[in-house]
Recover the amino acids of this structure.
């Protein structure tokens, strides 16, 4: 009887516990380290202002931070209804959150929320970047926001005639460029090596001659491609290459402006901006030597495009004024240099 009574009491007690409603779980909140990293990205945006690109300061930062617990939306002009209020920060403004939708290691810019170009990014550790490199990558993606926010961007991209029926934008990644064609690969190596030699002789008596050799190699590369394929290459140089160049330029601005706030310097993995700026420049120049078109495919245009922007800085410092009025190709900016 004692055993039966004990069992009955246990069952009764368990039932009583189950009948009690658990306290509601606290909604996820923005972690301190995430707030500090996002605040630094905002500081970089203010630091760059319009010094590199006219109108850049007017573009909202619009970042969707993806974590395993929740997605946090900041500085978005039109949050969708699936986001709910999650407090506010003095520098970041109102914060909204929703359950996770995107993978936590994503790093991209696209109209992810209400059709607005939004930087969708995981935490620094999830994207395998130091906090410093992460904040600069946000600026790379913020430049994509500026590109996509132009009123004629999507219409102009469609007019390139490269989509081949695709309406999702996936063609930008999957376009059947002849990466493995031996002639194209050889001409690509020639243009990258000629460009590197020109950059290495900047300020010397050899510079003008090296620039002419680069122009000749660029023309031979164009001749090896169909008009469609060359438009695709030019588009990638214009879009992704110049975004990489912009990342470098912001890093150099940050390196010249002094140390960032102490809270940012205290984050695990922090690197000084001069170190990261030097590494970014080195990676661009090294990429001209080591990039293999057949292996890296579309990514091969990043270093070439960034280095092309660097040579334009030397031959025509006003080229950025033409970037949005004459979009989607870098070749026209060399005319008259």
């Amino acid at each position: 009887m004692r055993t039966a009574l004990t069992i009955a009491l246990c069952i009764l007690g368990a039932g009583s516990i189950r009948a009690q409603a658990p306290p509601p779980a606290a909604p996820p909140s923005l972690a301190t380290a995430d707030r500090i990293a996002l605040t630094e990205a905002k500081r970089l945006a203010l630091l760059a202002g319009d010094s590199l690109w006219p109108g850049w300061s007017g573009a909202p930062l619009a970042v969707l931070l993806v974590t395993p617990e929740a997605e946090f939306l900041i500085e978005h002009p039109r949050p969708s209804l699936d986001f709910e209020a999650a407090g506010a920060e003095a520098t970041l403004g109102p914060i909204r959150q929703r359950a996770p939708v995107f993978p936590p290691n994503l790093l991209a810019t696209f109209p992810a929320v209400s059709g607005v170009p939004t930087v969708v990014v995981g935490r620094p550790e999830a994207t395998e970047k130091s906090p410093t490199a992460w904040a600069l990558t946000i600026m790379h993606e913020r430049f994509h926001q500026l590109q996509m926010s132009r009123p004629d961007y999507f219409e102009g991209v469609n007019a390139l005639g490269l989509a081949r029926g695709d309406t999702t934008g996936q063609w930008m990644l999957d376009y059947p460029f002849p990466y493995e064609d031996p002639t194209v690969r050889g001409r690509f190596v020639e243009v990258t090596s000629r460009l590197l030699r020109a950059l290495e002789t900047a300020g010397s008596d050899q510079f003008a001659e090296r620039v002419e050799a680069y122009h000749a190699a660029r023309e031979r590369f164009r001749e090896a491609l169909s008009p469609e394929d060359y438009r695709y290459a030019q588009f990638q140089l214009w879009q992704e290459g110049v975004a990489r160049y912009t990342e470098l330029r912001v890093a150099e601005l940050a390196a010249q402006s002094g140390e960032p706030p102490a809270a940012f310097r205290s984050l695990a993995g922090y690197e000084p901006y001069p170190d990261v700026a030097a590494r970014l420049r080195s990676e661009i120049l090294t990429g001209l030597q080591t990039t293999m078109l057949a292996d890296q495919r579309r990514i091969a245009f990043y270093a070439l495009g960034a280095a092309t922007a660097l040579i334009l800085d030397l031959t025509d410092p006003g080229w950025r004024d033409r970037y949005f009025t004459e979009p989607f190709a870098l070749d026209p900016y060399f005319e008259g240099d």
